[in-house]
Amino acid sequence: MIVNVLRFSFRNDVTEDEKAEVLATMRRTASTGSVAFAAVGQDLGDPAEGFTHAYLAAIPDLDALEQYMHDPVHVKGDDVILGRLARLSAVRLSDDLDPGLHQAIFAMHARKAAMYPDWGREVEALLTA
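Structure tokens predicted for Stress protein (129 residues):
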């Protein structure tokens, strides 16, 4: 199982309706066929870290991860989500002990960033904010 945990906060100018739209969009993405289980909601970490919400998606394996990353629901959803976030933190973990797993996931991300360069720049900017 590959688990992706995103902690994030919204930009100050994002309305409550827009926040609700982002969370609903994330829930749609998390309900695609490649996802084994998911959670979208409040971040329960230290408020001083500046994160207010979290997204978790558990994906069974690399083939499912590839499908998830390129699922039209996911790709379209990022257009709604990314521009409304102020910052983002990503943590990935797995029960698969394959030492090459990290490299394989990084390569998938790099391929997607090459396919969608604007997406890649937006994600990188949020991760370094």
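The first helix runs from residue 16 to 30.
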